[in-house]
Amino acid sequence: MGAALVTGGAHRLGQAICVTLAEMGYDIAIHHSSSDPSETEELVRAHGVTCRTYQANLTNASETSGLVTRVHDDMPHLDLLVNNASVFLKESIADSETSLLDIHYSVNVRAPFILIREFCDLVDKGQVINMADTRISIDDISSAAYSLSKKSLKDLTELAAVEFAPDIRVNAVAPGLILPPPGEDESYLDGRSEEVPLKRRGEPADITQALRFLLEAEFVTGQIIFVDGGAHL
User: Fold this and answer.
1) Could you identify which of 37, 82, 101, 185 might form a hypothetical disulfide with 6, taking C-beta atoms 3.0 to 4.6 angstroms apart as the criterion?
2) Which domain holds residue 127?
């Protein structure tokens, strides 16, 4: 098995992704910015694989550049990049400062762009999986900068899938109600679940199941899998 770099891998959904990949036999490179990666590192190593941590502020282009190279130097068998790190701040266009747009694009679009470019330059054959959002299917004015950035990530997924085929497959997962956003608790998800066709929230395991499918589906590239209980419909 190869090695995987997971951005934002220290907590929340990133932790679930790291542990699932470790279960599959991947060595894991956990990227983190300010979060403590030690708990995830321990969970990953419990599966008998190698685990290393890498700090970088993805709002800083110079720190983002070179991250894949650092991982590849330590793990030459790197063959998977999961762009999971994300910023979510809820403001409409009218209420947004320009800096809010900048931070969303720097983390949610520019960082994946840089990392994909570097990954595809160093890796002969592998996969990229981007974490999008069910909001790419609608126009959510309450989170304008975030929604715009995730729509751009969807387009980046498709562009990269064409450019780097056939050696690199590039796909995305678009989660719906999985974890409460920052500042909200579990009751937020319970209140929103009635809006979902399947009438329930999802779990991190639903996302990792989609991840497993994409890793094994060798004739799939440029696809966005919605894991949202039908919310995008």
Assistant:
1) 82
2) 3-227
3-state secondary structure 173-213: EEECCCCCCCCCCHHHHHHHHHHCCCCCCCCHHHHHHHHHH
CATH number at residue 122: 3.40.50.720
In a domain, 233, yes or no: no
- Count how many domains the chain has: 1
Q: Which residues contact 107 (CB under 8 A, 6 or more apart)?
A: 58, 59, 85, 86, 87, 149
Does residue 36 sit in helix, strand or coil? coil
Burial category of 174 from C-beta neighbours within 10 Å (exposed 0-12, middle 13-18, buried 19 and up): buried
Token pair for residue 55?
């700090």
Contact yes or no for 18/44 (Cβ under 8 A)? yes
Is this structure's pTM higher than 0.90? yes
Compute how many other C-beta atoms are within 10 angstroms of the C-beta atom of residue 116.
23
| Cβ contact 129:6 at 8 Å | no
**Residues 7-35: what's their mean pLDDT?**
97
Which tens digit of pLDDT belongs to each residue from 111-124?
999 999 999 999 99
